[in-house]
């Protein structure tokens, strides 16, 4: 297996240093994922940019959590499920929502269930969603904008989930209390 470096501000390529400094300033740490991504300043910048764009989509904090965690779980990402459990906690999302997502249980509302099912369908079917699925999603109160924003969320998570799988990114200490694996679901 090829070893990937977890960069810090001193070891990162010059173009990545300000991006890592921003994380340190805003979240108080440089997550190992971003340390790995720092090898490619373009990837790290793209990831951070899409993170900000997705957080400013039309989804509320519960919906963001449903989309992120659904994708993380579908991809079996041992790193991002705990990370987004911690993020949901920081965003003050009801821990019960994280629990149902992590344990593959039904969502607490029909609308969140429709969002979860659409996200699963997009990931599993590589975007080939049936008209009946779209109609069910729209009937739950979502529109074309939200459909497209789920695709944005998938794009965001592909970057992090795939890098974690390939680099075998170690879990940060801050995320260890939320450890997860597909066998724990």
Brief write-up:
This protein is mainly alpha-helical and 185 residues long.
How would you describe the overall organization of this protein?
The protein is mainly α and 185 residues long. The model has no long low-confidence stretch (mean pLDDT 96). Helices cover 61% and strands 0% of the residues.
Itemize the secondary structure elements and their pairings.
Blueprint: H1 17-27, H2 32-37, H3 41-55, H4 61-74, H5 80-90, H6 95-102, H7 110-124, H8 131-139, H9 144-167
Helix pairs in contact: 3-9, 4-5, 4-6, 4-7, 4-9, 7-8, 7-9
User: Kindly, what is the distance between the CA atoms of the first and last residues, rounded to a whole number of angstroms?
Assistant: 27 Å
Cα Rg: 16 Å
Order of helices and strands: HHHHHHHHH
Total helical elements? 9
The major sheet is characterized as: none
Share of residues in strands? under 5%
Helix content: 55-70%
- Compute the average pLDDT: 96
Oligomer: single chain
Shape: globular
* Number of extended strands: 0
Give the low-pLDDT segments.
Answer: none
Feature tags:
185 residues, mainly alpha, globular
């Amino acid at each position: 297996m090829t070893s990937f470096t977890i960069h810090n501000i001193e070891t990162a390529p010059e173009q990545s240093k300000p991006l890592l400094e921003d994380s340190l300033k805003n979240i108080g740490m440089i997550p190992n994922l971003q340390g790995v991504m720092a090898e490619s300043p373009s990837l790290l910048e793209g990831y951070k940019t899409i993170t900000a764009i997705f957080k400013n989509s039309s989804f509320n904090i519960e919906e963001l959590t449903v989309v992120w965690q659904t994708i993380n779980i579908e991809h079996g990402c041992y790193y991002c499920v705990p990370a987004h459990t911690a993020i949901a906690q920081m965003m003050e999302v009801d821990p019960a929502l994280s629990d149902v997502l992590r344990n593959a249980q039904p969502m607490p509302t029909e609308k969140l269930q429709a969002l979860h099912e659409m996200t699963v369908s997009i990931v599993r079917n590589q975007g080939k969603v049936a008209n009946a699925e779209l109609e069910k999603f729209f009937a739950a109160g979502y529109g074309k904008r939200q459909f497209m924003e789920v695709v944005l969320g998938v794009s965001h998570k592909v970057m992090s989930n795939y890098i974690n799988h390939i680099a075998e990114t170690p879990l940060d200490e801050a995320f260890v209390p939320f450890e997860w694996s597909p066998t724990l679901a």
